[in-house]
Amino acid sequence: MELINKTAIVTGAAGGIGQAIIAKLREQGAKVLAVDISEQSLQMYTSFDSKQLGTFVADVTDYQQVEAMVKCAVEQFGSLDIMVNNAGIGAPKPLLD
After folding, report:
1. DSSP assignment of 58-75
2. Which domain holds residue 28?
3. For the domain that residue 36 is a member of, what is the CATH number?
4. Distance from the CA of 67 to the CA of which of 51, 75, 82, 83 falls in 20 to 30 A?
5. CA torsion angle for 24, 41, 43, 79 (degrees, to 10)?
6. What Gene3D superfamilies does this protein map onto (predicted)?
7. What distance separates the 2 farthest-apart alpha carbons in the chain?
């Protein structure tokens, strides 16, 4: 699959699954807007080329922030072709607790 000239938003970008999704999308040539609720967690992406990967802080439960996120992707990369809703919450504890 080749994704050259495609733009993706990936929410939950700071978690392990989000990082793997972003890596695969970039490997296939997509431009990516990495979105997470934690600005500090998005710091891992600051060394990437901003023409290929941007970051955006948003709470995806807030409609206005989601609208702003989409607007950011379109303004930064020219379009939005792929949306990966990977954001979620969970308590880090053993499965059987």
Report:
1. --TT-HHHHHHHHHHHHH
2. 7-84
3. 3.40.50.720
4. 51
5. 50
6. NAD(P)-binding Rossmann-like Domain
7. 46
Q: Which whole-number Å values give the CA distances from 67 to 20, 83, 91, in the listed order?
A: 25, 13, 28
Other C-beta atoms closer than 10 Å to the C-beta of 90 total 6
Tell whether 16 is covered by a domain.
Answer: yes
Please tell me the pTM assigned to this model: 0.89
Per the structure, the count of domains in the chain is: 1
Q: And the tokens for 76?
A: 């930064």
84 strand-pairing partners? 10
The answer to whether the CB of 24 falls within 8 A of the CB of 2 is no
Strand partners, 55: 34
